[in-house]
Amino acid sequence: MHSLITYQVDDSLALIGLARPPVNALGQPLRAALLEACELANGDPSVRAIVIHGANGLFCAGADITEFGSPASFAAPDLPGLLLRLTRLDKPVIAAIGKLALGGGLELALACGYRIGETNTRVGLPEINLGLLPGAGGTQRLPRLIGVAAALDMMISGAQVAADRALALGILDRLAASPEQLLASACDYARELIASAAPVRPAEPFAEPAKDLEADFFERYCVEQEPRWKTRLAPRLVFSAVQAACLLPLEQGLARELALFKQAEASRQSEALRHVFFAEREAGKVPGIEASTALRPIAKVAVIGAGTMGGGIAMNFANAGIPVTLLERQGDALDRGLVHIRQTYAISVKRGKLTDTQLEQRMALLSGTLDYADLADADLVIEAVFEQLAIKQDVFRQLDRVCKPGAILATNTSSLDVDQIAAVTARPQDVIGLHFFSPANVMRLLEVVNARETAPEVLATTLKMGRTIGKIPVVSGVCFGFIGNRMLEPYAREAHRLVLEGATPAQVDDVLTGLDLNMGVFTMLDLAGVDVNFLVRDANRAAIAHDDSYCRLGDELYSLGRYGQKTGRGFYQYEGRQRHNDYEVVALAERLAGELHIPRRPVDDKEIHDRCLFMLINEGIQLLDEGIALRASDIDLVWINGYGFPAHLGGPMHYAEQIGLDRVLAGIRYFRQTLGDYGQMWFTPAPLLERLVAAGKTTVERI
Ligand code: CAA
């Protein structure tokens, strides 16, 4: 038998084990081996039932994602055909689902007549996260098994369902008492089926899925859900496939599903989302860090500063069961911080995402102190105080005095030089930047700033810790703003300038949200605080601002006390969270343009798109060239997870590849020529972009 499969006949049962580590992805070789094994068992008269299981515990994580977009994806035997054949075997087939059955893995289980899981089993159809839909019968078989509403929810959310819920829904028929007992329990189940002369496939509970469905079910579903889908294709295709399950007999429904799947697979959105999937896995691989790099244990954490950022950071650790000490200078600030954390958890309880007991467990992991001496036994200390070098350096001097040897000392700075912070300690090898994004308990991005002297095991430990607390850690070198904020700078600068030239804040934001960014530049600045943005800009003005027009609109709003949402006025006016255009801002832009001799003109949407996006892309490519970012896909992860760039565009670097690097370069050169002195000053193509285009490259890479 093939090495990808284990095969054994034991007392009238054929046990077929999937053995393609790490996750039994159903690539062509495994598909072929599985088909061969099933045919063998089907043709063996001594076999009366077949059990398919994961030979190493884990059942199957679905189709092989590396095959998508290539001929291997549908190379014979293709997955839909293989699973159809499985449904037509002459003997009962039982799926023994250890740990995971995801995507094509769950579809494999659905093609089996019977399914047993174990206590840790999770099942799901996460294809939507790859811009796909279940393409091997899932959209047709799951609604027939658990009903349309539950099936559609699983496919649209892509969420994993735990064993007990899968049992309640009817995806699993039974549960083994433990993972170790799964295979034996599956065999017992098979023998019971043989003894009771059970049918090869039991009747489907929802054989006619449309029956008993409210007449306006799909219409209502669309009204509720569609606005959230923005321009995403995959949810719409899932929806169509499930509608087909209600309208068509199984075979025709399967054909419709296949056509929709192929449409999704060929789409740019799916290509982008597959890129993001592999980018997330790649980000953890850092040159100089081997599997053998020793990790330091992180059992106790301390956070300096109990403000919004410090509190949010602390919650991540409490959520992961790690005790955290919060340090503040004043007792009332500490109390306020802890109360705020409790209130944030209470909102989760109200929304049903947390139980009261969990709230109390998490609060019990949080303690406060006003005394640095209480941080002596922390394994990791994260400083989250005011963004000013001298203040942060002072904190690090104190930490150097009190922390135990080997403790990792991290700064949550968003723009300051981590080397200068490390330099005030006698242990710069233990200092690293950990840039969380606000709200720190929610946002998935963690920029890990590898300073000049940071030790490899400190980097390796913080990367591992980042994943433990559910973040996507991305390594950045030291520079102003690291990867994310440095790219934000030219992008936001263009947005400001375009308003002086004649666009409105709403027009700029609408172009960006039209691209499916979570929010436009000005909405973001109003939310983050016009004052906060001003202070960072002002501290670095000498280094980055080369002319009077540089973000003048933001400066003027700051001087008017229009700090954004929190003061009810910024680039927009607010009533609660409701945003309105503010004609005073337009008048202010007109006045500033006059003072700066900037001609006002109608600005079209394409120009807004190209100027903001091309400058963002250009800076990213420059960062790659400088070695601040290790790879283009890391830059994509930063902007997707920290700045709301749509994952289905793959991040700014992938988006540049889709636009065409030559077109991006031509655009930058065009603005350099047409925008006068301003164009000459700011629209300088990154040398790496020029080299890539000259070399005929279509992907962003270091050359
Ligand atoms: N295909 C190919 N490779 C896969 C894979 C898949 N379906 N799932 C995981 N891998 C690879 C990862 O790329 C990674 O490779 P490297 O070690 O080379 O980086 C390795 O397996 C381990 O994966 P993780 O690092 O992600 O390990 P984890 O333990 O953190 O997570 C997992 C495991 C939950 C299975 C996660 O990998 C995952 O979510 N995988 C994708 C599941 C999925 O989306 N399945 C649907 C596929 S599409 C489909 O099936 C379409 C269809 O209908 C026909």
UniProtKB/TrEMBL annotation:
<dbReference type="InterPro" id="IPR029045">
    <property type="entry name" value="ClpP/crotonase-like_dom_sf"/>
</dbReference>
<keyword id="KW-0520">NAD</keyword>
<dbReference type="GO" id="GO:0003857">
    <property type="term" value="F:(3S)-3-hydroxyacyl-CoA dehydrogenase (NAD+) activity"/>
</dbReference>
<comment type="pathway">
    <text>Lipid metabolism; fatty acid beta-oxidation.</text>
</comment>
<keyword id="KW-0576">Peroxisome</keyword>
<dbReference type="GO" id="GO:0006635">
    <property type="term" value="P:fatty acid beta-oxidation"/>
</dbReference>
<dbReference type="GO" id="GO:0070403">
    <property type="term" value="F:NAD+ binding"/>
</dbReference>
<dbReference type="InterPro" id="IPR006176">
    <property type="entry name" value="3-OHacyl-CoA_DH_NAD-bd"/>
</dbReference>
<dbReference type="InterPro" id="IPR001753">
    <property type="entry name" value="Enoyl-CoA_hydra/iso"/>
</dbReference>
<dbReference type="GO" id="GO:0016853">
    <property type="term" value="F:isomerase activity"/>
</dbReference>
<dbReference type="Pfam" id="PF00725">
    <property type="entry name" value="3HCDH"/>
</dbReference>
<keyword id="KW-0511">Multifunctional enzyme</keyword>
<keyword id="KW-0443">Lipid metabolism</keyword>
<keyword id="KW-0560">Oxidoreductase</keyword>
<keyword id="KW-0413">Isomerase</keyword>
<keyword id="KW-0442">Lipid degradation</keyword>
<feature type="domain" description="3-hydroxyacyl-CoA dehydrogenase NAD binding">
    <location>
        <begin position="300"/>
        <end position="476"/>
    </location>
</feature>
<dbReference type="InterPro" id="IPR008927">
    <property type="entry name" value="6-PGluconate_DH-like_C_sf"/>
</dbReference>
<feature type="domain" description="3-hydroxyacyl-CoA dehydrogenase C-terminal">
    <location>
        <begin position="609"/>
        <end position="698"/>
    </location>
</feature>
<protein>
    <submittedName>
        <fullName>3-hydroxyacyl-CoA dehydrogenase</fullName>
    </submittedName>
</protein>
<keyword id="KW-0456">Lyase</keyword>
<feature type="domain" description="3-hydroxyacyl-CoA dehydrogenase C-terminal">
    <location>
        <begin position="481"/>
        <end position="574"/>
    </location>
</feature>
<dbReference type="Pfam" id="PF00378">
    <property type="entry name" value="ECH_1"/>
</dbReference>
<dbReference type="InterPro" id="IPR036291">
    <property type="entry name" value="NAD(P)-bd_dom_sf"/>
</dbReference>
<keyword id="KW-0276">Fatty acid metabolism</keyword>
<dbReference type="InterPro" id="IPR006108">
    <property type="entry name" value="3HC_DH_C"/>
</dbReference>
<dbReference type="Pfam" id="PF02737">
    <property type="entry name" value="3HCDH_N"/>
</dbReference>
<dbReference type="GO" id="GO:0004300">
    <property type="term" value="F:enoyl-CoA hydratase activity"/>
</dbReference>
